[in-house]
Amino acid sequence: MIDKSMILEFFNASPAKTIAEKDLIQRLQIEGDQRHEFKKQLRNLIASGEIVEVNKKRFGLPDQLNLLVGYVQANRKGFAFVVSKHKDRDDLYISPEHLYHAMHGDLVVAQVLRKKSGKLDEGKILRILQRGQNRVIGTYLIQGNKDFVLPEDSRIPYTLFIDEANTLDARPGQIVVAQILVSDEHCRHPEGEIVEILGFPNTPGMDEKIIIQTHNLPATFPQVVLDAADSLSDRIPAEEIQQRLDLRDQCIFTIDGENARDFDDAVSIERLENGHYKLGVHIADVNFYVPEASVLDQEAYQRGTSVYFPDRAIPMFPEHLSSNVCCLREGQDRLTNSVLMEFDPTGKQVAYDIKASVICSKQRFTYTLVRQILKDQDETLRQQYQDFLPSLQTMKDLSELLLQRRVQRGSLDFDLPEPEVVLDIQGRVENILKAERNLAHRMIEEFMIAANETVASHITWMQIPMIYRTHDAPADEKISGLNDFLGSLGLRLQRGNQLHPKDFQKLLHQVRHRPIEHLVNILALRAMKQARYSIKNSGHFGLASTCYTHFTSPIRRYPDLIVHRILKEISQGTGFSVQDVEKQQQMLETIAEHSSLRERAAMEAEREIVLIKKLRFMQDKIGDIFDGVISGVTSFGLFVELREYFVEGLVHVTQLHDDHYHYHEETYSLVGEQFRKRYRIGDSVRVQVAHVDLGRRQIDFHLL
């Protein structure tokens, strides 16, 4: 039986870089009746980019041919990146002249043209394997006798022509979704049909509708999925309670944000007679209600994660399950999986247990409320919640010990503020503030990290395949480029033979409370790779953790649900044959890759909606003057972030009238030719808002 793995194994073992089809057939001993299936599998491998065709009927592996297969991530300024399908490859920068008519979302084969120290490699696109765009979201317009859709996304370099019979009775100026029906290879004159009318541009919620459609997010659940969720009862069968650790009489409570609706984690603590801490992290047992391969499970897999906008969420599960049946509501009995950890007085873990349990949350706390009780010492609140004071204080003490130990091992904490978009009742942006991260946030963060590490180590020790949350060390080229810039500041990232998180930690400590702290934090963060899901345990560089997973949020992250399933298989004593292990690994690898892609899509959508809200917020501030800091420098200008609102805009190099400026790549700076004035990342500047362009997703500033 011919399959893809057999063909790939041959290529991996072959010393030749390329091989002709006829030689491949001969060496694999493909019989005549198998050739049709062989060619079908070979075409599938080419279509997916696992094998590339370099000349007529000659094939090879991309890595061996200095080629990269990945997805185009286009930028509205014209350039793009190719994001590799393989996690161990860095992204490839593609200049506009090397795009080969590729568009955002396309699966392509790209060639590496040149490697640049401290920068992404540069390349060009050779071939488009699959088009990523089959729909266009844009404005329906009529000019003369021409009907067309002007794309809302400026990364799409064409208008879509619509036959009069395919307009769905849309009115000019409305935002629509159009399906591409006909296009040539270069998408120069595509034709389409309108399949959905979203409404007029200024309709409340239109920004969210556009982002949902642009990023192909599932806005609604199929009826069969809603019916499956609605059929679930929040009443727990007595026989199920009998099989679990009953913790309903313990002081267990939740701590979440003010606007949170799905509570999937609760905590408890007690001080033992020997002076040790016993911490309980109790996570909603979603797996009990969502059997593998059920319609709920399949829908959750496709979504991969919940997506959060400033005014709404696109949940992974229907509301009845996420906000009711599995939600750890105050005063309600709920099924959980509990990680019970014992720590000595120094915060070192000395024992643990993982149990299927049932709990009843005694209180729904918010981060703000806990901060008011513990930090602000609000006497009225301390009196009101006096029954919880011992637990809260003990949690604070333990979390500080855990943080101290994590810092000692090299865990990184970039001190960069996150924006919080404040909306009024009509959904308009009222303000943009620095998101609060107080001691309650850090407390829960420490407990979740501890639980995730405990579960990861437990399953790894059992030698059972699982999904890890990994974060690889930065690439050498990134470190080299960072050190080039740090050298201009009199700094250097000191490292041994192998890069360790402590090397970054020492650097961040060196610049703490100095004017360049913000700058160095930004550049160090940019040097980092993106965390991902994997079946291989390569550790988590940012947390300085040798073994890490995601377990604590099964309501909103699919990999967490999978980890809960693995724990259940372990607790039931399910044996794994060699064949079972191989099958499990293949399944988990597919889930890990898909979940990483869905997470990236969600992050892009969340970033873009926040950016749009920022742009709308700045539309009535044309002419206003603000203090800012240079957050980026390119050959075409300076990016400036306003100190007051966490909004970024561009000062184009043509607006620097006092000199002719040249870009110095090694120091991330623009330097005047005649007067040698220098602008670089971290410099404080004063700017005036000149223009806000929603289509280009850009704010233009003038430097004062």
TrEMBL record:
UniProt EC number: 3.1.13.1
Listed InterPro entries: CSD2, NA-bd_OB-fold, RNase_B_OB_dom, RNase_II/R, RNase_II/R_CS, RNase_II/RNase_R, RNase_R, RNR_Ribonuclease
Location of the S1 motif domain: 623-704
Subcellular location per the Swiss-Prot or TrEMBL entry: Cytoplasm
Pfam families, A to Z: CSD2, OB_RNB, RNB, S1
GO cellular component terms, A-Z: cytosol
Highest taxon above the source species: Bacteria
Keywords, ordered alphabetically: Cytoplasm, Exonuclease, Hydrolase, Nuclease, RNA-binding
UniProt catalytic activity: Exonucleolytic cleavage in the 3'- to 5'-direction to yield nucleoside 5'-phosphates
GO BP term, pick one: mRNA catabolic process
Primary residence: cytoplasm
Any GO molecular function: RNA binding
NCBIfam families: 3_prime_RNase, RNase_R
Protein family per UniProt: Belongs to the RNR ribonuclease family. RNase R subfamily.
Protein role: 3'-5' exoribonuclease that releases 5'-nucleoside monophosphates and is involved in maturation of structured RNAs.
Stated name of the protein: Ribonuclease R
Organism: Vecturithrix granuli
Top-level taxonomy: Bacteria, Candidatus Moduliflexota, Candidatus Vecturitrichia, Candidatus Vecturitrichales, Candidatus Vecturitrichaceae
UniProt gene name: rnr
